[in-house]
Amino acid sequence: MKLRENEINDHNNLLKGSHKVRFDFLSKLIPESESIISKLINFQIAIPSWALGSGGTRFGRFPGGGEPRNLEEKIEDVGLLHKLNCSSGAISLHIPWDVPKDYRAIKNLAAEYGLRFDAMNSNTFQDQEEQVESYKFGSLQHVNKAVRKQAIEHNIEVIKHGIELGSKSLTVWLADGSCFPGQLNFRKAFQNTLESLREIYAALPDDWKMFVEYKAYEPNFYSTTVGDWGQSLLFTSKLGPKAYTLVDLGHHLPNANIEQIVSLLLMEGKLGGFHFNDSKYGDDDLTTGSIKPYQLFLIFNELIDGMDERNMNHASGLGWMIDASHNLKDPLEDILQSVEAIMIAYAQALLIDRAALKEAQLSNDVTSAQEILQNAFRTDVRALVAEARFRSGGALSPLKLFREIGVRNQLIKERGSKTIATGL
Amino acid sequence: MKLRENEINDHNNLLKGSHKVRFDFLSKLIPESESIISKLINFQIAIPSWALGSGGTRFGRFPGGGEPRNLEEKIEDVGLLHKLNCSSGAISLHIPWDVPKDYRAIKNLAAEYGLRFDAMNSNTFQDQEEQVESYKFGSLQHVNKAVRKQAIEHNIEVIKHGIELGSKSLTVWLADGSCFPGQLNFRKAFQNTLESLREIYAALPDDWKMFVEYKAYEPNFYSTTVGDWGQSLLFTSKLGPKAYTLVDLGHHLPNANIEQIVSLLLMEGKLGGFHFNDSKYGDDDLTTGSIKPYQLFLIFNELIDGMDERNMNHASGLGWMIDASHNLKDPLEDILQSVEAIMIAYAQALLIDRAALKEAQLSNDVTSAQEILQNAFRTDVRALVAEARFRSGGALSPLKLFREIGVRNQLIKERGSKTIATGL
Amino acid sequence: MKLRENEINDHNNLLKGSHKVRFDFLSKLIPESESIISKLINFQIAIPSWALGSGGTRFGRFPGGGEPRNLEEKIEDVGLLHKLNCSSGAISLHIPWDVPKDYRAIKNLAAEYGLRFDAMNSNTFQDQEEQVESYKFGSLQHVNKAVRKQAIEHNIEVIKHGIELGSKSLTVWLADGSCFPGQLNFRKAFQNTLESLREIYAALPDDWKMFVEYKAYEPNFYSTTVGDWGQSLLFTSKLGPKAYTLVDLGHHLPNANIEQIVSLLLMEGKLGGFHFNDSKYGDDDLTTGSIKPYQLFLIFNELIDGMDERNMNHASGLGWMIDASHNLKDPLEDILQSVEAIMIAYAQALLIDRAALKEAQLSNDVTSAQEILQNAFRTDVRALVAEARFRSGGALSPLKLFREIGVRNQLIKERGSKTIATGL
Amino acid sequence: MKLRENEINDHNNLLKGSHKVRFDFLSKLIPESESIISKLINFQIAIPSWALGSGGTRFGRFPGGGEPRNLEEKIEDVGLLHKLNCSSGAISLHIPWDVPKDYRAIKNLAAEYGLRFDAMNSNTFQDQEEQVESYKFGSLQHVNKAVRKQAIEHNIEVIKHGIELGSKSLTVWLADGSCFPGQLNFRKAFQNTLESLREIYAALPDDWKMFVEYKAYEPNFYSTTVGDWGQSLLFTSKLGPKAYTLVDLGHHLPNANIEQIVSLLLMEGKLGGFHFNDSKYGDDDLTTGSIKPYQLFLIFNELIDGMDERNMNHASGLGWMIDASHNLKDPLEDILQSVEAIMIAYAQALLIDRAALKEAQLSNDVTSAQEILQNAFRTDVRALVAEARFRSGGALSPLKLFREIGVRNQLIKERGSKTIATGL
Questions:
Q1: Where is the Xylose isomerase-like TIM barrel domain (chains A, B, C, D) (predicted)?
Q2: Which of B46, C194, C228, D340 could lock B118 by a disulfide, CB 3.0 to 4.6 Å apart?
């Protein structure tokens, strides 16, 4: 489904008046509003191809309708989102779910929608129909060399697809681990994984990055072989300069201080990218910002501070991606909410008075340090985010417009109500 | 698959010698060993029909082969387990996965294997093919009366199946809850659920029990409507004397003191039954006793103490059931390990010197209280458990025998390697 | 220390201009702003007498200077805070730290500052010099009747002090529990505690409330006898209509859904009051709103919804109190920040479009339900809170004024730099 | 207090008979029992000087009597413990609590009791009377160079004391961190700490080790600057070959897999030592093995496996120390229980059939791997531990003898009932 010519304009014309009041008020309060807006305009969050359909749990899945049936329709969906919010200008593919049949056609299609191909994702946590070896007991860690080899080759194949599409990074998320004490020799599992990663790393083009994602638990429930940032950093340090650690917000033990992890990884020059989502209990994969918006803000505070210190470009210095599971909401609406929450957190973090913060820190003025952060967080920056979108040609209220024009019904009409997108 | 006539005997004859040495030693040390053995003989743990096949996670499932294809084969599997360990003399069915076509035939089959029908389990957390209303947004809590009605009627139908089979209890586990703040009016959800449970309760025969299971989270990731023991107790207190709270070991927040909960529910006369498993992170559904065996022992300590105080029969006073997910191990082997761990914990808890413990408690002698518990836990009671099994006609080492006679290969031969049992 | 006559006026005159711009903008956006302001004006949060000095941990304490040396100085400090923010019009005393020598004088002093006496707090978690029996192994739960009696009598004495001062409630927080498995008979501990609470309850005047506070752990590290809301509710239900459960935000297991607990306690008519603070790990007792401001907002959402349903007065229907430990910040500044965060959360929750929320809930429109809550939370309501304060005669920016007039230095000058207030 | 000449002999003579029965039975079952016994004999666990008195929490402390009043009495207490169990042949000192006045006298005294001086501990988490700069906002991380310098010099002084006493290691546990978002620049705090540690490292003799301990939280409740093993490893890797990571069992986030951390640190050659205790919630500092004995066993499993792989001597390859807080029990009894639990876990882990385990791992036989571990854990090895003690001249039942001869009463008589040892 595509938007009709004037749909965004018509929508904006109706909201422009009240938006202007808010924006004018805000821009007067915030001297640096123009600089913030231009950063917001540049900031793009990749949408994962597998998050466009209904997600589920081991207990079941309740699909909505109109889910994309193939890679083309996935690109179409992300294109629609990007049209609406002008902040989702990239798609992240997952192999084997998204193997392109015709690279050129796919690239052209993406270009039509203004989309880049973000990080490529491999899958060695499931067994595919045609697969010879099983990943039941791990992939890159496996005690059996043949299994490791198969998993390595799969990753190299994923890189090849990525090269064709113009992607510049590979995300390796491993489910590898164990469910019971004794199952695994932890050191052997680490060494096997390292050796496997080295072979994949060797196949990486010079201008590519490899992201090694960590996760505390699930689907293995006793140990995970890349289980925390410390383990990921061990791997990426041993691998070399193209290897980076990737942080997924839901992949930590309870109460972890994620913003501190982010800060230290940036200090070490080893933070590679982000998977945004939110959670209350485990890897709940909820809408970004729906549970702990202040934590999201604090993470952006560290990102900006650490990236600025290293002169990294906010937009291109790290890989930004949503990774959520949309079990109950319309997946596209859910993504719109996530992107909005990310943009708000980013804008608020840009608002922080860093000179004052530094001064408060240097004088151990804890009260003021807190005030400075809260002052930014409590500011209603939505008009700034909307203005950035507006200037880029997007909708002032993407979610509102999404509903007004009946996207979901249209998609169901086009694709049917029983389609199920590949994913979890 | 059935055991051949002498298989257990032959196995036992080989192990009898070394068993006798251990048992003789132990029975000399433990004056009350005969009384413990007779309690162990009586103690039976129900096996859930859905745990006989490979379990999985939202990320995938790696089925083994030879999984039971229907209710008859499930009964056959539990029968085999019971033959081996003489402690699994009951099966717990799940509707609609186990709808019996011919009650009499099923009852006869179960009787052949010496099996009772334990608690019946309803399923309102998934949508079935033929179902009119969807449980996407809950079942007994649903804002729409029609959905609630459908879920109520399903539960009543489950009761009816149970009556035919001679079951005496219904376990209601509700996935009902919400994934996002705002989604639910908590009080309305509670009231709707209560009203629905009341209708089900009204359909319960006089000699039945209703178990209301609680769970902290999953598959809903913000709130669960029967989320902890306090909420379950609110429901069961309002429902009436046939309603009880059911404790599943994996359904708590991190670090919860489950043994205290058990003790208080017994004090209130409202503990109904148990779902055994183990976990490190969440509802990991691992083999019972594989992660926290001391916790299992402490729970049995409270169970025995509380049941004895109320003159409850250990074997029949509560519903005992395994509820695990066998993702990596042979499900039948996994169950044998769980049952063994439960019997060991029960035997150790029976060993506790309760008079001495009481005295230590009354004099705040914390050191001694700890010594008394640890003394029981550190005792190697395996020979007692084996002796109980032996006297009942079971195998001295069920797991060993299971492997020696190649059960899994035999099942694969009979049922094929691609069968997938109903379950999660 | 007292504010000089025109200090607040002078301060406000300087800020009035920029405040007016913000307030005018906001009040145009929010039709119900006047009603919100009048609710904010009425809302008062009690300050605990023990939070006016530096708190500490078991590892140490780093006192600031100028801490109040006696009850009179504590009242003076709360009076100063109330003068500044007009929202701290009550003080909560702790016995034996705050035993008044002359009731009339103390009452007059408090009246001078416009302060009420909120809930009285007993202390049976420490041994006092003159005490006969030790609370090492508990107080109301103790196996020894003499210890229980002493603790009961102490509570009754606390009530008597409260009656003299015009307080209307007693908060019972029990450290009672155990540090090791076996130490305690959980049921006996419960029964002893219940019996003890009944004796205290019997001494309660008709117009008083008794708040039974729960806490998951600390200072006992294995079990706590009033360990969660379910246990507290068991006690308060058995005790009678004057007994209520008190919620302290830091007293839960990791990831607990506190807002749901609040909602259910209100449903049962058994929520009594609140201890505000914030935490990341355990009972960290940090400044309210400094870690999880969205959770605070969600709790206020439930409070308003539940209180309105029962026609409870927001200001007087429940007991509102801060209970934090000020280890690093100036305690008075810390309290000003806590009160501000509470007022903001309350104002945001008042902003929620409840009709729309209800409609979203009834149609399972999860996306909209989230939007409605986030819309309120993302609104910058600080000008409303400031306006309420302004109209009551308080300072537009209490914290700013506190620093401008050098309160801490003044207090140090008056009281010395080595004073240590009673507390933890 | 010293034991009388024949006290141990008399005690042993009474228990020898029943011990022999158990030991003979066990040694027949376990072919490698002699080798295990000799390892147990060599294994010594250091006792921290600060754990000999009653510990407490921020809510209070309930001292027993007879606590050691000075360093000499602390050595006497550890000497007594070592006499009883022959496994506590080292003491770990804490400066400034244990500054020796006369090195030679102290060394002679320790030698009399057969005690070594284990790791020296510095203290920069509290302010001492005479101290110029305050550690309120950290020590080695402090924004102010003067504070860092003071803390560095303190550590160097601690090393000097250690050199005089023959210690070979320094344990640096830092409380440094922050309580509120914004308070700290994480990277600056890391860099300051690193720089400070480097200065201390430079003062370390060639044959010394520096242990950098990590802790997730407490006494800081937002961030800790050496917060997890990953951060500690970053520090120790940057520092050099004499720097190692120290693991305290209670210093992790909920559900952390500590045994995996241990395994990886050994793999990296960076595990330095251990602080034993146990916990249910946070850093509860309970008796080792009192809450999660299976976890303790699993950790020893990894320790043995990893140390053997690197040909490390079990007894001397790592620093072994108890670090607990004895709030409710007699501290000396508590330590005896901890040491016993450690010896049991060590003996059980030595029992593991490593060849079979390796084979099970290589064939992904998860069931067998679990059986092999559980088989070792379920074995009652207490007679082996007792035999090792017996052969070394210790008591068959140290705790029993401790009580029989009335140690505590004797200590109270000697030292008074109101003494309070230095510590927490």
A1: 101-285
A2: B46
